[in-house]
# Entry
Amino acid sequence: MSAKKITVVGAGHVGATCSQLLAMKELAREVVLVDIAEGIPQGKGLDQWESAPIEGFDTRVYGADDYSLSEGSELFIVTAGIARKPGMSRDDLLRTNAGIVHSVSEEIKRVAPEAIVIMVSNPLDIMAQVAMEATGFPRERVIGMAGVLDTARYRSFIALELDVSIEDIQALVLGGHGDTMVPLASYTSVSGIPLAQLLSQTRIDALVERTRKGGGEIVAHLKTGSAYYAPAAAAVQMAEAIVKNKRRILPCAAWLQGEYGMEDLFLGVPCLLGEGGLRRIVEVELSDAERAALESSAAAVRSTIEALKALT
Ligand code: APR
# Structure
């Protein structure tokens, strides 16, 4: 199973990595890479297509500076924007990226009114809302990439700490994408063994803290940009669940309508992804402390929305 056409908007670090991964996994017959930077999408698209004979994929990769080739795309992965620089919070990106995502969303609506949108641009939860409002798409078709990345970071740190395979580590991270994310230690296990039986609370707390600051840790190393391999892998895993109708339960940013006692905001929650996009939000039991952490994460998202409204 694969899509006929997937478009990746933004041919920068995250976007170009997405299109290469989509092609290598043959998740669509055609992948279109769109960017406003002159020559970049065409050059990267052609370069990726030239890797096809070596990698053995039949996905055609195209690059374009407009949306004519994207007409009828079933799925869009939106990575357009400016990346976070050292010392810059995600919210600093707010105004610029909101304008970019708004204009991109209008193009998506024009060329592919039935498409599903996976939002990647930051600040994520807010950009997902901008896209949903600008496209007018239902919540099933606008989903934010946050939790898959945050969970992957958490799992990768647990694997290092315990020196075990990442394949055996299951974890759940809820909340907004950022410093207020809520890693759920109670839903973390290694081959079914609760994490608390394998690590002390102090070590778990340290891993949770590292996960919260995972994006910043990469920025501190790179200095001139932010993470892209893991973010792209995360977005492509969501795309795969949708185009193959896998019905995976993945933590994603979804528009809440009463779930977890909240409504009218995007927040990271377990989502069942398959044909049509978001099929269901799964509600899990939370301890009082976890619920309080989720509430404060939601408050941070709401305050960024207010900040954006004040800016525009
Ligand atoms: N339409 C299409 N592409 C655009 C537009 C636009 N209106 N505006 C900017 N872009 C492109 C830029 O030209 C650039 O090539 O988006 C690309 C962004 O690429 P990078 O600067 O390399 O940023 P990247 O690291 O890929 O991050 C992109 O993902 O994880 C998030 O925080 C990150 O919001 C950022 C986004």
